[in-house]
Specification:
Elements (H helix, E strand, L loop, with lengths): L2 H6 L17 E2 L11 E9 L2 E8 L9 E6 L8 E3 L2 H11 L2 E6 L15 E4 L7 H5 L4 E9 L2 E8 L2 H10 L8 H10 L3 E7 L1 H7 L7 E6 L4 E2 L12 E9 L4 E3 L3 E4 L4 E2 L8 H15 L4 E9 L13 H7 L8 H5 L11 E9 L8 E5 L6 E2 L1 E6 L8 H25 L3 H7 L25
Parallel strand pairs: 2-13, 6-21, 15-17, 16-21
Antiparallel strand pairs: 1-4, 2-3, 3-11, 4-10, 5-11, 6-7, 8-9, 9-10, 12-19, 13-18, 14-19, 17-18, 17-20
Helix pairs in contact: 4-5
Amino acid sequence: MNKRVASLALLVSFGFAQSVLPFCGFYVAKGDAKIFNKASQVALVRDGDRTVMTMANDFKGNPKEFAVVVPVPTVLRKGQIHIAEKALLDHLDAYSAPRLVEYFDENPCSSIVNAPVPVAVMEAASTNIDAQSLRKSRGVTIEAQYTVGEYDILILSAKESSGLEIWLRENGYKIPSGASGVLDSYIRQNMKFFVARVNIKEQTKLGFNYLRPIQVAYESPKFMLPIRLGTVNASGPQDLLIYALTRKGRVETTNYRTVKLPSDVEIPVYIKERFPSFYRDMFASQVRKEEMSAVFLEYAWDMGWCDPCAADPLSPQELRQLGVFWVGGSQNETSRGIMPQQGNDVFITRLHVRYDRAHFPEDLVFQMTGDKESFQARYVLRHPWTGSDDCEMADTYRESVRTRREKEAKTLASLTGWSLAEIRKTAKLGDSVATPASQSKDKAWWEKIWQ
């Protein structure tokens, strides 16, 4: 996962994901390896009943020990499974990331006062199953078996959770305790299980030394992500980033509140060097405020543009690779000089959820809305003017800056829970805005008349 992104938001595990693949399942390891699914990302393309999910993961360790189990609504054919490039999710994350924007105050003595203009923007951030194992199916049916890229993939169906657990263990998978009840709920919904593990021989042949994102395409009236399996072997709360791309507008959860994060607030300029820690603590504060029972909106925008841009919008070719099937721009088209318009009626919603088993007992259920109002988690730094010009407006301005800096400090304390005294100390609020000695307020009033 992109380190910058990780510093701003922990990605979660739940179904299908990206650079932090949102696997909607739990990780399972062979042998005694301890694997915790702590952070993941999911790119979720939706139009009608058609869905394309891109799952990435932040797994650290020997790829021989990696495997993932994800509930899926239907048996997937080989052509419905694809291996994507990590750069796609990195770009999507960078484009939608929470951002910091700087403004520089104008000279208050200038006859022309222009509206502030942003001058800088920053991103916040195998072995095959043998015949004996197949005979010991325990009520488990292998509906399909493929090798796609560097992954060996099974599509399983099961009659009961205990049989599925036994089957997985007999075939070398380490299943976390407590999985049975969650597995049973998916079996009762007639869902299938997508099981993927790394084929080391194929990975070596392809030349990759990291796990690439997995993509799946399917049709289902259910617009949801199964996050409950991801809590079974979690060592604590997990963070999940969801990038939903639709034609119509913003995506929101229907069974949990969707809450906009505080945005467009002014904070002390020293946060420029501490944005990751600020954002982590601000987000944690909002999670506490909502008692870990909400999904947070970080970004909602038409993909055709951005203002300000943390990164360029994705190209039509990149959108197609993510599974945005209604966008033009195939390799064949571009080779013939056909360049479709960027964006192509694509609206992106970035959701961030921190969840655990106690506070999120249900899978995430989504709905598409017609709301195309733009939103971004955006935080503002306003640098004071420090010139030496003297005029009546300059004195008024300098006093307003003192008031503003105090307000910024209180806002920062309120958003993060940080000590106001420490914020004031770091922001040097004991210092006044620079005032040249020739303009000292200690001058007698008449001394300024004939200057």
